């Protein structure tokens, strides 16, 4: 079916058979999921494989850590109730660069991000600042992060205090406490970074911007959202 090939090509090879099948269903096309998988195998259409990169660990300063308030909090039922943030590293040639993102846990939309050559407090603050400018959340927003020093730094805490943000942190050794952002990093690296080489930070920043704004937030189907994209899910709720 030409529709299968079009959906696969439009996703730039990022969709496997489950998401191609859901896209067909969203368009009102009735076809079996097994048939979609079989046709894609026969035509050599295979989604880009994922390669998981672990974030580099830095020396932990003795700064205050907060409890995981998400454990005792109901799931969000609207935007700007709960956000999650994290930092990952990206290999670029022989060096590493660093990406911080802020994700709305209701819609899985990336609402803020920042890419820099070094890992410091400005990175995570820059991503949060962008998110605050875009969303202007009400007081009481819960922001969940890991226990990295960049999130426990005094200037980061001051920013959250000014905006009346409740800071929640993952439990030690529980990376699943921040699973939504980890899932985004896995998608980004598998669908964009693993298949492409970047020479400059400016070039990489441009492609990440395109991925987030033109694909992930606007087109990428999420099973947790009923196979809808974040912006579509927000519009329907």
Automatic annotation (TrEMBL):
Domain Integrase catalytic: 72-237
Coiled coil segments of this chain: none
Family matches, as SUPFAM superfamilies: Ribonuclease H-like (SSF53098)
A Pfam family this chain is assigned to: HTH_21
Record-linked InterPro entries: HTH-like_dom, Integrase_cat-core, RNaseH-like_sf, RNaseH_sf, Transpos_IS3, Transposase_IS3/IS150/IS904
Gene Ontology biological process terms from the UniProt entry: DNA integration
Gene Ontology MF: a single term: nucleic acid binding
Superkingdom, natural source: Bacteria
Name by which UniProt lists this protein: IS3 family transposase
Lineage of origin: Bacteria, Pseudomonadati, Pseudomonadota, Gammaproteobacteria, Pseudomonadales
């Amino acid at each position: 079916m030409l529709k299968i090939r079009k959906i696969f090509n439009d996703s730039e090879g990022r969709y496997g058979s489950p998401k191609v099948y859901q896209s067909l269903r969203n368009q009102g096309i009735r076809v079996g999921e097994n048939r979609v998988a079989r046709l894609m195998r026969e035509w050599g259409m295979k989604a880009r494989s994922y390669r998981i990169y672990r974030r580099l660990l830095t020396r932990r300063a003795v700064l205050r850590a907060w409890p995981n308030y998400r454990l005792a909090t109901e799931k969000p039922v609207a935007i700007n109730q709960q956000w999650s943030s994290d930092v990952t590293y990206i290999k670029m040639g022989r060096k590493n660069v660093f990406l911080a993102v802020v994700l709305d846990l209701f819609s899985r939309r990336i609402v803020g991000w920042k890419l820099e050559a070094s890992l410091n407090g400005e990175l995570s603050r820059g991503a949060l600042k962008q998110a605050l400018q875009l969303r202007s959340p009400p007081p009481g927003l819960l922001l969940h992060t890991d226990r990295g020093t960049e999130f426990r730094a005094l200037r980061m805490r001051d920013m959250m205090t000014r905006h009346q943000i409740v800071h929640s942190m993952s439990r030690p050794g529980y990376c699943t406490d921040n699973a939504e952002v980890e899932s985004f990093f896995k998608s980004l690296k598998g669908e964009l970074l693993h298949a492409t080489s970047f020479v400059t930070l400016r070039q990489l920043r441009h492609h990440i911007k395109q991925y987030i704004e033109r694909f992930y937030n606007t087109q990428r189907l999420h099973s947790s959202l009923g196979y809808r994209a974040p912006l579509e899910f927000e519009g329907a709720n």
